[in-house]
Specification:
- By secondary structure, the chain is mainly beta.
- It has helices spanning about 25-35, 45, and strands at about 65-85, 95-115, 120-130, 135-145, 145-150, 165-170, 195-205, 210-220, 230, 235-240, 240-255, 260-270, 275, 280-285, 285-300, 305-315, 320-330.
- The chain has a twelve-stranded antiparallel β-barrel.
- The longest helix is centred in the N-terminal third of the chain and has 8 residues, at about 25-35.
Length: about 325
């Protein structure tokens, strides 16, 4: 297998919030479960494209070529949750629970050039989680949500002009669903619903700086035929709703072998509608996830560039901290 060399470096940190296990109200628990999972198409997927030499017609891999990439990511979520009971009209229960969750994801991605300007891809994530809260302390190891995608570049890359790439992705609910696991015995490793997304990514090289930005839309299908106990009710169906995201940033080449990057990304997801067996419904709040990403790329060889990224959560719906590593695989 021949691996196309990486030229330049664009950093964007994977948005991989770990679940805080069920506690408090039904809607709060469902909101945690509906946070973005491994395999979601967000700004990371759209911005994570390698820049190539300007004398090439297209920046995607050539027709008939194969490129494999290994990605490692770590995320941490820590929070204090207030548990209060006012159902009787008076405060009968008040406590502060400290929750923490760690997630490690190892992903193998393979790209195949269908044409010089059309690339297909598949990603296989393996997810490991550790959660510590009053409901459950323990580990979970499982396959995450498999992703199938495509990238299309309609115009040839020309010197001094922006490069535009259209992207699409289908995420399959192959991981452990948050709507089917027992919160007191296990942790989810997937989203539990299929998701389709589409977006556009724009890169513009102003040597030695590469500017980039993206916009994407995602829609998730319903999770049906459920029978999960949430508080005093039984959850039977979840409608996650659509989301929109954008990102922008720049990468700067310090030398031939070292580059740095700074980017921000934000995703806004509509609140999910929850359906219960007793005929009642509920809706979670709209989620806004924002990240500040810092990265560095080190060219180990002409065919191998090691990319390291660190992210800081800017909103309550974001991971507190993320760390990522990405590098091409050679065979």
């Amino acid at each position: 297998m021949r691996i196309r060399p990486l030229v330049g470096f664009i950093a964007a940190v994977l948005m991989l919030p770990a679940y805080a296990q069920q506690g408090g109200t039904d809607s709060a628990a469902a909101r945690d479960a509906l946070k973005k999972q491994e395999g979601d198409t967000d700004q990371t997927t759209l911005l994570k494209q390698t820049l190539t030499a300007v004398d090439k017609q297209y920046s995607l891999i050539r027709r008939g070529k194969i490129q494999a990439t290994y990605d490692f990511s770590y995320s941490y979520v820590g929070q204090e949750r207030i548990n209060a009971d006012l159902s009787s009209g008076q405060l009968t229960l008040f406590e502060i629970n400290n929750d923490s969750a760690h997630q490690i994801t190892n992903t193998i991605s393979v790209d195949y050039g269908l044409r010089d300007n059309l690339t297909a891809s598949v990603s296989l994530p393996l997810v490991s989680k550790y959660s510590e809260n009053p409901s459950f302390d323990g580990f979970s190891h499982s396959l995450g949500d498999i992703g199938i995608g495509a990238r299309f570049q309609p115009f040839e890359t020309r010197r001094g002009r922006p490069s535009i790439t259209f992207t699409s992705n289908l995420r399959l609910p192959t991981g452990k669903s948050p709507f089917k696991v027992d919160a007191n015995q296990d942790l989810a490793t997937g989203s539990g619903v299929p998701t389709i997304s589409a977006g556009v990514n724009v890169n513009h090289i102003v040597d030695p700086v590469a500017l980039f930005g993206s916009l994407n839309l995602s829609y998730s299908g319903d999770a049906k035929d459920l029978s999960q106990i949430r508080g005093s009710r039984v959850l039977t169906r979840v409608d996650p709703g659509p989301s929109i995201g954008f990102g922008l940033g720049f990468a700067y080449a310090l030398s031939y072998g070292i580059s740095t990057s700074v980017s921000i990304q934000e995703t806004i997801s509509r609140g999910a509608r929850l359906y219960f067996r007793d005929g009642t419904t509920a809706k979670t709040k709209t989620q806004t996830s924002g990240m500040l990403n810092l990265g560095i790329g080190y060219r180990i060889s002409p065919k191998t560039t090691l990319n390291i990224t660190a992210g800081i959560g800017l909103t309550n719906d974001s991971p507190d901290f993320t760390l990522g590593l990405s590098m091409p695989l050679s065979f």
